[in-house]
Amino acid sequence: MASNSFQGKVVLITGGTKGIGLAVAQRVSAAGANVVLNYGRDSAAAEAALASLPGKGGSSERALVIQADASSPSQMRDLVDKAVSKFGRIDIVVANAGIFPAYTFDNVTEAIFDSTFALNVKGPFFLTQAAAPHIPSGGRVIFISSGVARSSGVAPPYALYASTKGAVEQLTRVLAKDLGRKGITVNAVAPGPTDTELFHEGKSEAMVKGIASQSPFNRLGSPSEIAEVIAFVAGPESSWVSGQIIGANGASFV
């Protein structure tokens, strides 16, 4: 059973209507949080996500769903403005929106490079910049990295994706020093292979099984398992944890 450690907290989650983002929203909503869920294009998924929030989480009083391009600094500023207009502040930012491209080195175009860094790095940076003035002392910023950022066994088609997550990890370490002066912690959670719609895109069943077998548990992680790690980092128990990259990978990348 979820504790009440998020009672009355305002949690903003980009990419919050599917996969890990939705699991986080459900977890913190069940523990009393007000949630702001950002999504990119899928309005049907957004409506379903809102309806899935436990208790009164799906009510207009405790939840807000906002369409915005998470790669756009101006739209991230607008997202923050709407969240603050609704709830008065933001306690926790979970910059979860991202893209997981797989291109061979020769096939990466400038447009692909720019769009990948825009969503995975630029968006989280400017979201945090916009939100920080509205986050009180004791607040949290949580980025999402990946086990591929530290593994030398990553397949070549994931070089671009791994590069963006390397940038996110260094951003985590440096911003922790900057925002720490305001009493805000900054951390990143780095999932391993996780059973989400995004992970399954472009992969055969045999490929998914092969990836799952890299863990001694012989399975993928679940979004709810990652959400529990994020909930810990977002909660009061983690007040002395900052500037850290916390792996949640079932020993897949060790």
Automatic annotation (TrEMBL):
Alphabetized InterPro entries for the sequence: KR_dom, NAD(P)-bd_dom_sf, Sc_DH/Rdtase_CS, SDR_fam
Listed GO MF terms: oxidoreductase activity, acting on CH-OH group of donors
Membrane-spanning segments: none
SUPFAM superfamilies: NAD(P)-binding Rossmann-fold domains
Annotated Ketoreductase domain residues: 9-192
Keywords noted in UniProt: NADP, Oxidoreductase
Classification via Pfam families: adh_short_C2 (PF13561)
The family this protein is said to belong to: Belongs to the short-chain dehydrogenases/reductases (SDR) family.
Protein name: Ketoreductase domain-containing protein
